[in-house]
Every structure is written in C-alpha cells, then in structure tokens.
C-alpha cells in the first residue's frame, strides 16, 4: 500500500506558516482540509511517533474553527501513555476537544483517576487542570473523593488546583458540598498565596450556594481580616507583588468574600469595619492596580451593613475616580455610583458637578453612564441647573440616546418643575432641540401637560407658533404646535403675555403655516392629520378665513392616504351640511384627566358617570361635565339610548348647546351607530385630536341623522347573549336605517379571567326564514381581565319580520384546554323587527 | 469567574482561545468573531469594559496583541484588566522579546502557562516565578 510509506508529517510551525500565508479563506480551507486528511491517514497507522505532533496541529486547526473532533480518541491514547510529553499534549487536547457531554468521558474518567494519584505532582496537576475544565456531573461524583483527598495534601502545588476542581464539582453537583466543608475551612490557615486565593474562591462559591454554609463561614471573618491585614502591613513580598501592591488579586478576592459574609449581618460587618477603612486609606493609587482594590472595597462597603462614615468614604473614593485620567477608572466609578445612587443619594449628590462633567467625556459608554446617573440625581433643589446641563447634552449627544434622553427630561421636569412657565420652556426646548427624536407617546403627554396649564395657553401657543414657523420639519414639535394652535388659536393675538416678545402675526399667516405643513414633503402623515384638524378648528376661530380653510381642507379629499382623505371628506361635509353645528362642535377640548387619575377613575363607580350624563341633558354647567371621564363612555351611551327609548324629547345637538365637547362626542358617536363599536378601541385615548374625529365619524354615518331626528324609527340596544366562566359575549343590535328588514348585530366578546383566551371562533345560525351573514372578526385572541375583546359584525336579514332567534357556537382555547360552548339567544328586543 | 480568554493579533487572527464554559463549535466561532470585531473597532480610545449580553467584556491592547476576556458580573473587571498584564509579563519572562509569533509557534507552551494561571475560570497563581517553574523544569528535562 502506498500509505504505508507515508512521508514525515509537516511540523506545526510549517503548517501555521502555510495557513497564515493563505491569501483567501478558500485557500486556507484547502490547506486545512489537506492537512486534516493526512492527519486522519496518519491516525489510522498504528505507528505513534508523530501522534503528538498531529494532535498539536489539530489543536491549532480547532482553534481556527474547523472541526477536529476526530482527534478525540488520539488524545485518549496520548493520555494513557506513560511519557509526560505525550500526556501533556493528550490532556491539552482533551481540554479543548472534549466537552462534558461526550460518551468518551467514561474513558477519560479512568485515566484521570489513575493520574490523580500519580506520584509525580506534575502529572497530578495535568489531571486536575483537565478535570477543572471538562468535569461533568457524573465525573464529579466519581472523582469527588480523590479531589477531597488532594485538598488535604501537603503539596501546595497540587492543593490549589484541587481546590478549584472542588469549585467545579460544586457547580455541577451542589449536593456534594457537605463533604468539602471541613477540609475547606482548614485552608485559611495556609500561607501559600495560591492556596489562599483558590480557597477564598471556593468559600465564596459555597456561601453563595447555600445560606447554611454562609452562616457557618461567618465565623471565619476574623481570620480573613487577619490575612488582609498581613497583606497590607507585611510590606514588600517580591513574589506576589504587582507594581508595589502586595498580591492585589488575593486582596480583591478576600474583599469580595467579606462582602458576601457581611451582607445583611451587623456583627460580621462590624468586625470588618476597621480593616476596610485601613485598606481604603492605605492602598497606593499611583498605579492602576490600586484602583482595582479600591473599586472592590467600595463595592464591599456599600454591600454590607457598614458605618455611615465608611459609606461616605466609599463614595468619595468614587468621586476621586471620576477625576482620574484613565477612562476605565471613570467608567467603573460611574457604573458603581449608579449602583449605589439610590441607597446613598446625598453622598453621591456631592459629586454632581464631576458627574455632569462626564457628560462631555469623549468615550460614549462613559457618557451613557453619566447621563443615567445625572437623571438619577435630579431633584427639586437642583432641577434648574441639572436641566441646563442635560439640555446641552441633548443637543450634542448621539442620535441613539436622544429619544430616551427627551423622555427622561420631560419626566424629570414633570416631577420637579419649580413653576409652570419653566416647565413649558423646558418642554419647548426639548421639542426644538431633539427634533424628530422625540417619541410619539411624548407628544400626547406634552399636549396634555400644556392643556392643563390654562394660565399659560397664550404664552405657549405663541412660542410654539414661532418655533414651528422657524422649522416645520420637526414632526413632534409641529404636532404639538398644530394641536395647540387649533385649540387656542385666538390666543396667538393676545398681547398681554408677560415678558415675552410680542408675536406679530396675522391669522392669515397662521393658516399659511399650517397649509405649508400639509403640503411639505417632510411632514409625516400623522403630522398632516394634526394639521388638518387644527385648520378645521381654526375655521371657527378665524371666521374671516373659513372659506380659505375649507378650500385647503377639501384638497385632501383626493389624498392617497385614506386617513387624510377621510378627514378631509368629513370635515368638508361639516362645512356644507352641518354648518350650524360647526362652531359648537369645534369648541375648546375640555381638560383631560391625568393619566394616573384616569386609571383611578376607570375603577370608580359607574353610577357617578350616569348621574353626570343625566345632567348633560339638563344643561349642567361646564365644569361639572368636564369632570367626567372618557372611560365611562360605554355605560353613558347606553343611558342615553335608554332615555330615547323611554320617549323623552329627542336630543338634537344642533339645538342643544353641548355643555362639553366630549359629552357631545360620545353621544353622537354612539348614537350614530353602535356598529362603529369595532373602530372604537383603536382610538387613542390620550391623543386629544382623535375624539374630534370620532365625533365627525358619528355625524356623517348614514344612520346618524335619522336616529337623531326620529328617535323611534331606528333602534338599537345592547344585551348579554352569553356569559359563562368569565367569557362574556354581548350583542349590540341596531335596525338598519336604510333597510328596515336588516338587523346589524355587533358582537363583542370579553374575558374577565386572569388568563387569555386564544383561537376564539364565534359561529351563529338562524332559522330558515332568516338569513345571516357573518363578517370577519377583529381577531381570535381575547386578552385577560377585560383588557380588550374580539368584535364581529353579524347581519341578520328578516324579511318576514319574525322574532329573531339565533343559535351560537363558541370554540376557544383557555388555559390550554379546548372549549366548545353552545347557546341559544332569544332575548332580542322586539323593536328590532316590529 | 472568567468565561473565556482570547488572545488575538492586530489583524484579528486568534492566537489563543480558551473557553472555561462549554460552547458549541459554531457558537464559539460566532462569538469570537463578533468580539474580535468589537474590540478591534473600539481600540484604545474607549474604555476597556463593556457589558455584552450576560457578561462583561474586558479587553486590553498591547502593541500587536489583544487580550479579550468575558467575565461574570461578580468579577472585578479592573483586576482582570491587571491580570492581563500579569499574563503578558509572565509570557514576556518566558519568551525573551515576546512577539505574537512566539505565541503562535509555541501554542502548547502558552496553553501550559495559562493553565498554571487559570483553572476552571478562576485565577490559581499570580507569581510569575511559580507559574513558570514547571515549564522550565520540562524544558530542562528535554535538553
């Protein structure tokens, strides 16, 4: 055979040269593949002269990321060899090529067991090192006894490695901890640094794993204190000295363990107070390594029940770190300050100026920490100064931080603003500096905030107008400004605003700017929506320009954007058909409930809402109506319907002066068609512009005028069709105005259980004399706790005007179970067909 | 705990890769590639620590050599940063005029040195003399 006279395999050195000189990845792959093939070939030979060299090459190939698992068995052969050099490469190969999930492990376990009790310490060490990196749970159980024996060995070289093997074993099989505790405790009496270092590691691991062991090891605190004291007092020990600091790695590990032991324990913390203070003051910080120790000591001081003085000392150390030239030290300081800022806010406050200076640091990750920390430090006392800095930062910071930064500024301003005027100015500054990075949810929050500040409406609207006039490309700014101009447009000409430059504009200019927003290619659709609504509102504020506004709005009835087109069409018909209602409809929005308050209100009693609604009919004064919440819309509307049904005089909005805009909104909307129920949840409750659109929706709906004017001709009613196990199905029925034989039923399914319902399917069947048509549902997922629902429109045609009967079938998945429910619905009100 | 330790040259080629927590070959390669990209790009201008997924990345660059390590969050990143220097000093002591090629051509020796310093992701010895003793003994035996 040819292969029997194989050439001498390439040396590792040559292989590396060859691979490194490969020009392309393909070349490199070719070299590696060729070499792998020859290595395999050589492995097949029984001759083992070159086995070592081949495995070494394989390790290099493996490092480059090529598969090398075929060398595993060869490693085992090398491990079994008696020669140290073979064993060495064999174990190295095992460490890199094997992993703990291989079956091959059984074979290794045997070799390891033998080598752990070898008389040569270097062979023991090889086995320990390998075990430390590939030990599996099974191997842990098999070899724990050997390791425990080695921990007690008098040979420090083997001892320290065995200790870390124990560490690995405990990670794999925590149950074995008991067995190691006695031998571990004795380790702290050793002098060898390697043994101490590894022992401290092992104890830390044990304490973190089990609270009982933690209690046990609290007793060693004095011992640890002594070791630490020796380290800092004993002076120069050349062996473990790192730039003048005696074994910093051991110091760091001991400090870490002290932190674990002193956490939530007053007594242990007391024992270490002195030494912590000593280390903190005696450590030489002229070299970087001293900072590593100080850093650890700060963490320990902040992590245990330390004295107040010590904590101040710790924060001051961090304050000094901040002034350091080394960026790593500054980074670590900020990171640590962030961790402790909540616990020791006052101590950190003292370093505020330094922290704020870090906002200008050239390193991005330092700036990121600094800004986080700055926001954590903002309070009512320093808000003005901090905001000035943060706004300056906002101007220059990287785009990726801008939107978060804006949100944080706005929230901080809301929380601590000294006065309203300042608050408005800050918000305005955010809008003008951050431009398009302002998040959209912030827009509605700002609008709400502005609306609440009634005494500053004139000032705000003027400033916003000026800002918008300067730059219409900043979407969030334009959105807020458009809304405000729509609402408070007349205030633009209010010249009594205190200490602000007078705005010299004509109503025509205002309309022009809004028109420019509509035309501009830079405007987002949402912005255009704000603008078109603002124009509509201005049509009643600037009466002389109402024709012009109408013209501008009507252009968009041909817009390719559906939303804009719809608004345009609806608004235009408001001019044409309902002109007498327009000014009443477009009055100022009532104040909206604060977000937090409205959550509260949603849980409030519904009866309150009813009372207010009844009051609406009797022209209750405006303030009262303003208090009512949007969240009770549903129940209120039903009340109105009831009223109509009972036969009270029909409510005609054109005659009635709507006491509040939102009252009118709900009223019209729901009367206009219960069918629009499905569209309703989509309305953003926070964006105030939306309700006015909603209003128009209702008005233009084909059935709306009919119902309004002849309260008895159309009819609608809502009732429960099905309710079981938390699933509630409601029918909102309505007789179609145009086709009296057709009944539209809007089905709404909600879920009051704490778990969601999925794959919800609603089916309905009717007797032969009817025809039923089901439109596609809004979804098949019902969120829990009434957090939303599925709606579906059902049309029943009833030419013979019989009483409607319906069978329904519901299938869904709930808590992992498939559920099928059937039911018959006979409770349709007779008004639907009579 | 140290999760892994990489030594790369300034071209981004891996000289040493040691993982103290098991990773599949593909994941290992992907991770290494990503980290090398990050570290080479950041270079000396930015801070040497950054949070990356569930660990902290610490790196340090010398002339033509980069040290990269992934450490758990309870480890002291500054100490590890210093530890890199200790590794370098130790290597420098063993290979006179240490260069990246020395590491590459003496892969097994470097592994041996590192194994004397770190076991299972924990530092085991910090005295260069003690670290090098077994390796020097081996060299003496060979001669």
Automatic annotation (TrEMBL), chain A:
It comes from the Eukaryota. GO terms for biological process: intracellular protein transport; vesicle-mediated transport. SUPFAM superfamilies: ARM repeat (SSF48371), Clathrin adaptor appendage domain (SSF49348). PROSITE patterns: GAE. It is found in: Cytoplasmic vesicle membrane; Endomembrane system; Golgi apparatus. Belongs to the adaptor complexes large subunit family. This is AP-1 complex subunit gamma. The lineage of its organism: Eukaryota, Metazoa, Spiralia, Lophotrochozoa, Mollusca.
UniProtKB/TrEMBL annotation, chain B:
Its main location: membrane. Keywords: Membrane, Protein transport, Transport. GO terms for cellular component: cytoplasm; endomembrane system. GO terms for biological process: intracellular protein transport. The keyword Transport applies. It is found in: Endomembrane system. Gene3D superfamilies: 3.30.450.60. InterPro entries: AP_complex_ssu, AP_mu_sigma_su, Longin-like_dom_sf. Residues 1-141 form the AP complex mu/sigma subunit domain. The keyword Membrane applies. PANTHER family: ADAPTOR COMPLEXES SMALL SUBUNIT FAMILY (PTHR11753). Adaptor protein complex 4 (AP-4) is a heterotetramer composed of two large adaptins (epsilon-type subunit AP4E1 and beta-type subunit AP4B1), a medium adaptin (mu-type subunit AP4M1) and a small adaptin (sigma-type AP4S1). Component of the adaptor protein complex 4 (AP-4). Adaptor protein complexes are vesicle coat components involved both in vesicle formation and cargo selection. They control the vesicular transport of proteins in different trafficking pathways. AP-4 forms a non clathrin-associated coat on vesicles departing the trans-Golgi network (TGN) and may be involved in the targeting of proteins from the trans-Golgi network (TGN) to the endosomal-lysosomal system. Belongs to the adaptor complexes small subunit family. This is AP complex subunit sigma.
């Amino acid at each position: 055979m040819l292969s029997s006279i194989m050439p001498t395999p390439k040396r590792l050195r040559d292989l590396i040269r060859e691979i490194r000189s490969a020009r392309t990845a393909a070349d490199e792959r070719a070299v590696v593949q060729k070499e792998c093939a020859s290595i395999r070939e050589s492995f097949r030979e029984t001759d083992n002269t070159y086995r070592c060299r081949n495995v070494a090459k394989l390790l290099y190939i493996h490092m480059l990321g090529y598969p090398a698992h075929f060398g595993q068995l060869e490693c085992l052969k090398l491990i079994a060899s008696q020669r140290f050099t073979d064993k060495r490469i064999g174990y190295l190969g095992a460490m890199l090529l094997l992993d703990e999930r291989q079956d091959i492990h059984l074979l290794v376990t045997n070799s390891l067991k033998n080598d752990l009790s070898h008389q040569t310490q270097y062979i023991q060490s090889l086995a320990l090192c390998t075990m430390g990196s590939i030990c599996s749970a099974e191997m842990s159980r098999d070899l724990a006894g050997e390791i425990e024996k080695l921990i007690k060995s008098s040979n420090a070289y083997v001892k320290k490695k065995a200790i870390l093997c124990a560490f690995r074993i405990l990670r794999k099989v925590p149950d074995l901890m008991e067995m190691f505790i006695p031998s571990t405790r004795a380790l702290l009496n050793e002098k060898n640094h390697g043994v101490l270092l590894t022992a401290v590691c092992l104890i830390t691991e044990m304490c973190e794993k089990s609270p009982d062991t933690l209690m046990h090891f609290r007793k060693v605190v004095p011992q640890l204190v002594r070791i630490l004291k020796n380290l800092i007092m004993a002076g120069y020990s050349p062996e473990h000295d790192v730039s003048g600091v005696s074994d910093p790695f051991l110091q760091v590990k001991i400090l870490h363990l002290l932190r674990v032991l002193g956490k939530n324990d007053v007594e242990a913390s007391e024992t270490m107070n002195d030494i912590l203070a000593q280390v903190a003051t005696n450590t030489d910080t002229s070299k970087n390594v001293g900072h590593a120790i100080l850093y650890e000591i700060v963490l320990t001081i902040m992590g245990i029940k330390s004295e107040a003085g010590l904590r101040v000392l710790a924060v001051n150390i961090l304050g000094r770190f901040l002034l350091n030239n080394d960026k790593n030290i500054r980074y670590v300081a900020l990171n640590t300050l962030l961790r402790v800022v909540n616990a020791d806010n006052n101590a950190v406050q003292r370093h505020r100026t330094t922290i704020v200076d870090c906002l200008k640091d050239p390193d991005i990750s330092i700036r990121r920490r600094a800004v986080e920390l700055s926001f954590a430090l903002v309070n009512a006392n320093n808000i003005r100064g901090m905001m000035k800095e943060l706004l300056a930062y906002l101007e220059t910071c990287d785009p990726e931080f801008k939107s978060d930064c804006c949100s944080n500024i706005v929230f901080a301003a809301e929380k601590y603003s000294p006065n309203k005027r300042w608050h408005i100015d800050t918000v305005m500054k955010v809008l003008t500096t951050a431009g398009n990075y302002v998040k959209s949810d912030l827009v509605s929050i700002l609008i709400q905030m502005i609306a609440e500040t009634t005494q500053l409406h004139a000032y705000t609207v003027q400033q916003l107008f000026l800002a918008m006039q300067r730059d219409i490309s900043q979407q969030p700014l334009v959105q807020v400004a458009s809304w405000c101009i729509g609402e408070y447009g007349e205030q633009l000409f209010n010249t009594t605003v205190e200490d602000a430059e007078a705005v010299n504009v004509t109503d025509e200019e205002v309309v022009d700017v809004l028109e420019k927003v509509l035309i501009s290619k830079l405007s987002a659709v949402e912005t255009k929506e704000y603008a078109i609504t603002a124009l509509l509102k201005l049509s009643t504020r600037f009466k002389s320009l109402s024709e012009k506004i109408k013209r501008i709005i009507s252009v968009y009835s041909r817009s390719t954007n559906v939303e804009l087109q719809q608004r345009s069409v609806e608004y235009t018909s408001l001019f044409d058909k309902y002109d007498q209602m327009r000014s009443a409809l477009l009055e100022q929005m009532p104040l909206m409930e604060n977000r937090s308050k409205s959550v509260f209100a949603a849980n409030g009693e519904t009866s309150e809402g009813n009372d207010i609604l009844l009051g609406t009919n009797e022209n209750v004064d405006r303030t009262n109506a303003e208090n009512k919440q949007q969240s009770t819309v549903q129940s209120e509307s039903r009340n109105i319907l009831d009223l109509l049904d009972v036969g009270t005089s029909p409510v005609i909005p054109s005659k009635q002066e709507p006491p509040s805009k939102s009252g009118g909104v709900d009223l019209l909307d729901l009367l206009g068609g219960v069918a629009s129920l499905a569209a309703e949840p989509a309305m953003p409750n926070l964006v105030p512009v939306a309700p006015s659109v909603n209003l128009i929706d209702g008005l233009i709906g084909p059935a709306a005028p009919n119902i309004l004017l002849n309260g008895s001709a159309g009819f609608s009613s809502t009732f429960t069709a099905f309710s079981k196990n938390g699933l509630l199905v409601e029918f909102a029925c309505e007789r179609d105005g145009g086709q009296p034989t057709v009944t539209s039923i809007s089905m709404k399914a909600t879920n009051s259980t704490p778990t969601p319902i999925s794959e919800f399917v609603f089916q309905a069947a009717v007797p032969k004399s009817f025809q039923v048509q089901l439109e596609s549902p809004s979804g098949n997922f019902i969120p829990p706790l009434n957090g939303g629902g599925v709606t579906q429109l059902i049309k029943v045609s009833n030419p013979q005007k019989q009483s409607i009967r319906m069978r329904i079938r519901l299938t869904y998945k709930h808590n992992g179970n498939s559920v099928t429910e059937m039911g018959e619905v006979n409770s349709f009100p007779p008004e639907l067909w009579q | 705990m140290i999760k892994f330790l990489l030594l790369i040259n300034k071209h981004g080629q891996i000289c040493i890769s040691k993982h103290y927590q098991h990773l599949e070959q593909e994941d290992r390669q992907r991770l290494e590639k990503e980290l090398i990209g990050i570290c080479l790009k950041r270079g000396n201008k930015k801070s040497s620590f950054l949070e990356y997924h569930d660990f902290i990345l610490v790196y340090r660059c010398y002339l033509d050599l980069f040290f990269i390590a992934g450490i758990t969050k309870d480890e002291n990143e500054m100490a590890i940063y210093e530890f890199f220097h200790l590794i370098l000093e130790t290597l420098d002591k063993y290979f006179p005029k240490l260069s990246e090629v020395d590491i590459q051509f003496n892969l097994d020796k470097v592994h041996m040195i590192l194994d004397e310093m770190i076991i299972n992701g924990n530092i085991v010895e910090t005295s260069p003399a003690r670290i090098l003793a077994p390796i020097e003994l081996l060299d003496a035996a060979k001669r």
